[in-house]
Specification:
This protein is an alpha+beta fold. The protein is 41% helix and 18% strand.
């Protein structure tokens, strides 16, 4: 996307998923990541980030968070019938 590489991207949902290793904790890399996320958001793309160890140790939680972003909300049930 532009001059940036996105780890995973769903154009239909306009959702970018970034997986970060420990090197992303450095100040310089955090600034670069924030600039990239700002650029993507400015282009209408939502960005969610996960640490690599989070994916390895809590894949269910990661998948649940992704599902929450891509699953449309269930409309409230109208019990009055109208």
């Amino acid at each position: 996307m532009g001059m940036y590489i996105i780890d995973f991207y769903c154009p239909m949902m306009k959702l970018a998923i970034e997986l970060d290793g420990g090197q992303h904790a450095d100040n310089e890399n955090r600034e670069y990541d924030e600039e990239r996320s700002d650029y993507l958001r400015a282009n209408g793309i939502e960005v969610i980030r996960f640490w690599n160890n989070e994916v390895l140790q809590n894949i269910d939680g990661v998948l649940s968070k992704i599902a929450g972003k891509i699953t449309p909300p269930i409309p409230p049930l109208n019990l009055r019938g109208g």
